[in-house]
Structures are given as structure tokens and as C-alpha cells.
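Review form for a predicted model. The reviewer records the input and the model, then writes brief findings.
Reviewer: anonymous (R2)
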Amino acid sequence: MAENRSTDPKPISPWLKQTLELGPPLLFFVIYLRLRDEVFTFGGAEYSGFIVATVAFVPILLAAMGALWWLTGKLSRMQVFTALMVVVFGALTAWFNDERFFKMKTTIVYGFFAALLGLGLLLGRSLLAYVLSEALPMTQEGWMILTRRLTGMFAALAAGNEVVWRTMSTDTWVKIETFGFPLLLFAFLWWQIVALQHHIEDEGKG
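Model under review:
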């Protein structure tokens, strides 16, 4: 029993956890607003304010994830994957001086989650249940329903990002990326928890 406890996340203030998780995107938004009309020259090449804000976002995110890991002793696979994508596509954005790489990152992240959950469904399994069943006890049927719906939601967000960054301004993309997509996903998950209440199991019954 003691060995299992050592792998459990350490307690942390919910407010601090939310700050570390949501703070970096908000800081990126603020930095972008301050730099969006500026042009910077490094090594003889000109870089837009968006690209400079993207490069600044990478260490901010890594510092926040490092602090979260130090305080809790654990990071989710989703957090690790998202941070890796930010580093890779942030580097590509800076190297090629092309903001499209960072914008495509969102499509790839959402698309990856949709594909991963979809693969589990094809195998007759809910990968969500594998990751979250301890935090949210629910019937197998409930997990399969939630997985199918979330797969569709991630696919829709990936497609939505493609439409936004290809057809709208950078300003619009930054606002939707920072606020629109996360709020849509949060609202969707909240709606699903309410809709699937009859599938949630009461741990006290055992």
C-alpha cells in the first residue's frame, strides 16, 4: 500500500494548479497583444511579433509544467504531449520564420487525441476509462458513450482550427485558440458529465 501512495500526486491548491495550467496560454495572449504590431530583427532576419511571442511561450510553458511536476510529482500524458508539441512546433516556427507551424500545432494535438480515442473504440475499448476511471467511477457503457462523443469533439476542434487559421486573421486565431477552443471543450465536458449522471457509479455502494 505504501508503494502505491508514493506514486500518487502530492496535494496542491486547486487555484495554484489552475494558475500553472492556464497561466501560460494567457501570458502568450498578453505578450502577443503587446508585440503583434512590432517587427524584430535577429541575425539579419525579420520576425513578426507573433513569432517572438511564440518563442517566448515555450520557456513559459516548460517552467509552468516543471513547477507543476515539482509540486505534485506528476504530469498527465496529455500535458506532456501538449508541451512536446509546443516545443517542436515553436522551434519550427522560429527556424522557418513561419507562423503556420504553430497554428497547425493545435490541429495536430486535437487530431492526435481524436485518433487515439478512435483507435481504442475500434478495438472495443475506452482509453478514457483506462486513464480516468479512478477519478470518475462510471459504467463501461458510460465510458464508451463519453469516448465516442469526445472523439467526435476532438475531431471537430481539429477541423475547426484548420478553418480558423486558414481563413481568418492571426488576431482572430489567437483569441479563439486562447479562449474559444478551451471554453468549448470545457462546456462540452461539463455537459457530458451532467448528461451521463445515470452512468456514474456511487463508490459508497460497494
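Findings: The longest strand covers residues 39-42.
Further findings: Residues 99-199 form one domain.
Recommendation: see findings above.
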